[in-house]
Amino acid sequence: MSRFSMVFTPFKLKGVTLSNRVVNPPFVVNYATEKGFVTERLISYHRNIARGGAGFSIIGASAVSVNGFIMSNMTRINHDEYIPGLRD
Fold first, then answer.
1. What is the pTM of this model?
2. Which of 30, 18, 16, 15 is nearest to 60 (CA)?
3. What is the largest CA-CA distance in the chain?
4. Whether residue 47 has pLDDT greater than 80
5. 27 Cβ partners below 8 Å, 6+ apart?
Protein backbone atom coordinates (compact mmCIF):
# COMPACT_ATOMS: atom_id res chain seq x y z
CA MET A 1 0.00 0.00 0.00
CA SER A 2 1.44 3.36 -0.99
CA ARG A 3 1.63 6.19 1.50
CA PHE A 4 -0.88 8.15 -0.62
CA SER A 5 -3.46 5.37 -1.03
CA MET A 6 -5.88 7.11 1.36
CA VAL A 7 -6.11 10.10 -1.02
CA PHE A 8 -8.41 8.16 -3.32
CA THR A 9 -10.66 6.61 -0.70
CA PRO A 10 -14.07 8.02 0.27
CA PHE A 11 -14.22 10.44 3.18
CA LYS A 12 -17.18 11.50 5.31
CA LEU A 13 -17.32 15.20 6.24
CA LYS A 14 -20.21 16.49 8.39
CA GLY A 15 -22.58 13.83 7.03
CA VAL A 16 -21.53 14.25 3.38
CA THR A 17 -19.52 11.46 1.78
CA LEU A 18 -16.84 12.70 -0.62
CA SER A 19 -15.63 10.30 -3.31
CA ASN A 20 -11.99 11.00 -2.42
CA ARG A 21 -9.77 13.43 -0.52
CA VAL A 22 -8.66 15.49 -3.51
CA VAL A 23 -9.53 19.13 -2.84
CA ASN A 24 -9.65 21.95 -5.35
CA PRO A 25 -8.70 25.07 -3.36
CA PRO A 26 -10.58 28.34 -3.75
CA PHE A 27 -9.67 30.41 -6.79
CA VAL A 28 -11.05 33.87 -7.54
CA VAL A 29 -12.70 33.45 -10.94
CA ASN A 30 -15.33 36.23 -10.75
CA TYR A 31 -17.93 34.16 -12.62
CA ALA A 32 -20.89 35.55 -10.63
CA THR A 33 -23.27 38.19 -11.96
CA GLU A 34 -22.58 41.88 -11.34
CA LYS A 35 -24.89 41.62 -8.30
CA GLY A 36 -23.11 38.52 -6.95
CA PHE A 37 -25.49 35.75 -7.99
CA VAL A 38 -24.20 32.33 -9.05
CA THR A 39 -24.14 31.82 -12.83
CA GLU A 40 -24.20 28.72 -14.99
CA ARG A 41 -20.57 29.49 -15.84
CA LEU A 42 -19.59 29.21 -12.15
CA ILE A 43 -21.56 25.98 -11.75
CA SER A 44 -19.95 24.57 -14.89
CA TYR A 45 -16.49 25.53 -13.61
CA HIS A 46 -16.96 23.49 -10.42
CA ARG A 47 -18.75 20.68 -12.25
CA ASN A 48 -15.75 20.29 -14.58
CA ILE A 49 -13.38 20.17 -11.61
CA ALA A 50 -15.49 17.37 -10.13
CA ARG A 51 -15.49 15.51 -13.46
CA GLY A 52 -11.70 15.82 -13.42
CA GLY A 53 -11.63 13.83 -10.20
CA ALA A 54 -11.69 16.27 -7.29
CA GLY A 55 -13.84 15.07 -4.42
CA PHE A 56 -14.31 18.59 -3.04
CA SER A 57 -14.17 21.99 -4.72
CA ILE A 58 -14.18 25.22 -2.71
CA ILE A 59 -15.79 28.37 -4.10
CA GLY A 60 -13.46 31.37 -4.33
CA ALA A 61 -13.71 34.79 -2.70
CA SER A 62 -17.26 35.50 -1.57
CA ALA A 63 -18.65 38.58 0.12
CA VAL A 64 -20.21 37.76 3.48
CA SER A 65 -21.22 41.40 4.07
CA VAL A 66 -22.05 44.39 1.91
CA ASN A 67 -18.64 45.87 2.75
CA GLY A 68 -16.95 42.70 1.55
CA PHE A 69 -18.21 43.11 -2.03
CA ILE A 70 -14.94 44.56 -3.32
CA MET A 71 -14.66 43.15 -6.87
CA SER A 72 -17.00 43.00 -9.82
CA ASN A 73 -18.65 39.65 -10.44
CA MET A 74 -17.74 38.42 -6.97
CA THR A 75 -20.02 35.81 -5.40
CA ARG A 76 -22.10 37.12 -2.51
CA ILE A 77 -23.46 35.17 0.44
CA ASN A 78 -24.67 38.02 2.63
CA HIS A 79 -28.41 37.52 2.11
CA ASP A 80 -30.80 34.59 1.80
CA GLU A 81 -31.56 35.53 -1.82
CA TYR A 82 -28.18 34.03 -2.79
CA ILE A 83 -28.84 30.60 -1.27
CA PRO A 84 -30.65 28.97 -4.24
CA GLY A 85 -27.74 29.62 -6.61
CA LEU A 86 -25.16 28.54 -4.05
CA ARG A 87 -27.14 25.37 -3.44
CA ASP A 88 -26.94 24.56 -7.16
1. 0.84
2. 30
3. 50
4. yes
5. 60
For the segment 13-43, what is each residue's pLDDT rounded down to a tens digit? Answer: 899 999 999 999 999 999 999 999 999 999 9
Give the integer Cα–Cα distance in Å for 9 and 29.
29
Q: Are 22 and 53 in contact (CB under 8 A)?
A: yes
Position 8, amino acid: F
CB under 8 Å to 4, separation ≥6 — which residues?
none
Burial 41-73, CB ≥16 within 10 A → b, else e: ebeebbeebeeeebbbbebbebbeeeeebeeeb
The helix/strand/coil state of 56 is strand
What does the DSSP 8-state code read for residue 18? Answer: E
> How far apart, in Å, do the first and last CA atoms of the chain sit?
37
At 17 the three-state DSSP class reads: strand
